[in-house]
Amino acid sequence: MSSNGNKTILISGGAGFIGSTFVMQMLATQSNLRIINVDALTYAGNLENLQSLEQDERHIFVHAEIQNTELMDSLCRQYEVEGIINIAAESHVDRSIHDASPFIETNIGGTVSLLTVARNLKLKKYVQVSTDEVYGSLDLNSDELFTEETPLAPNSPYSASKASADMFVRAFHHTHDVPAVITRCSNNYGPRQFPEKLIPLMILNAKESRSLPVYGDGMNVRDWIHVEDHCDAIWRAYEYGKPGEVYNIGSDNECSNLHIVHSILSILGKSTDLIQYVTDRPGHDRRYAIDASKAKRELGWAPRIPFEQGLQSTIEWYLEHPEWCEHILSGQYRDYYSQQYHRER
Ligand code: NAD
Ligand code: TYD
User: Fold this and answer.
1) pLDDT at site 4
2) Homologous superfamily of 7-340 in CATH?
3) 207-263 confidence digits (pLDDT tens)
């Protein structure tokens, strides 16, 4: 507890898709919580996502890289931070195939930096927001699920960087007694997701009657979860997760990419002629599926948003926020920092 009576946590990546949802959701539901939000504002960071919090004194935005250990240390001291939730990452598989270096710097280097701070300041909790992709790929025709005991077998440079980070979290817990917890969630969808990822890309392309690029045969399977359900699980992992433990998070909702694309076209009343099969992603994982029973049992968590309802409301969000979409597509969102938010706090 800080001297001002608030509980203060540092989260990273709070201008991105999951991070911004997390910040808004937590400030709306946890009345005594103050959040120090550290984000480097890469291409994926968008301060327009946090517009509704500009007057909220419980939200302190810091434009910085998590690899800056000295700064992270001094922020934690200055604001009497109780714990860290590391959400920041380079998050797109296709970009990692093109160039792995930012993935090493942020996903591995940034994680070690925050773990070092948690260790030095003996923070009460550290949560690493990881991914089911660290487990590799499942057979399309099996009914096998990823459990927390499934061996790590990352296949993309992205998942290799996330798996490496998880190993450092494990090591800092084992060697330095950092009270660290790892969450491994399946594919998220929802408002404010950057339109390089499947669902928002397909929504925006379909809306404009542009072609929808489906990799390979479109039969790759992901286990989709609404971002708000994921954020609820992250918070429960922070509050109730046992140090040293891993929690898988998923919504029992396996869908092929083609099924998703057909659903989006049908909701938008567009023709399936827009589907364009394109060259497959190299090393493309075939199927992800999560067994989330441990999180349900030990964190008292359960997903609440059925996929059909969540997809419908996500599509509505993109239709109702043409400015957000336009600013992303034109690159104008990157000016937001200098126009609206250029002040010291
Ligand atoms: P995102 O790409 O939308 O956002 C990432 C955020 O991190 C951006 O705001 C970016 O500016 C920030 N960032 C990047 N490098 C940084 C650095 N060095 N220092 C500080 N900030 C930095 O990603 P997302 O989809 O919101 O994913 C968030 C986390 O959740 C990631 O760790 C990802 O691995 C994990 N995850 C994502 C999904 C998914 O489906 N999106 C599923 C499971 C886990
Ligand atoms: P993506 O949203 O990039 O998430 P991830 O690779 O982390 O699962 O991709 C989800 C699935 O959609 C994946 O199987 C790749 C596929 N995909 C396409 O078919 N076309 C696209 O344009 C994109 C971005 C993804």
Assistant:
1) 62
2) NAD(P)-binding Rossmann-like Domain (3.40.50.720)
3) 999 999 999 999 999 999 999 999 999 999 999 999 999 999 999 999 999 999 999
DSSP string, 211-240: -EEEETTS--EEE-EEHHHHHHHHHHHHHH
For ligand 1, atom 4, the nearest C-alpha belongs to 16
Cα(245)–Cα(247) distance, integer angstroms: 7
State how beta strands 7-12 and 33-39 pair.
Answer: parallel
Q: What is the per-residue pLDDT across 131-187, written as a single tens digit (0 to 9) for each? A: 999 999 999 999 999 999 999 999 999 999 999 999 999 999 999 999 999 999 999
Q: Cβ of 309: how many Cβ atoms within 10 Å?
A: 11
225 CB under 6 A from ligand 1?
A: no
Q: How many Å lie between the centroid of ligand 2 and the Cα of residue 20?
A: 21
Q: Which amino acid is at 234?
A: I
* Residues flanking ligand 2, CB < 6 Å: 93, 187, 197-198, 201, 213-215, 220, 222, 257, 281
Span of 97-101, 239-243, 294-298, 329-333 with lowest mean pLDDT: 329-333
Q: What residues does each domain of the chain span?
A: 7-340
Amino acid letter, residue 11: I
Buried b (16+ CB within 10 A) or exposed e, 207-227: beeeebebeeebebbbbbbbb
Ligand 1 proximity of 89 Cβ (cutoff 6 Å): yes
At 115, give phi and psi (nearest 5°): -65, -35
Residue 334, token pair as written in the block: 């990157």
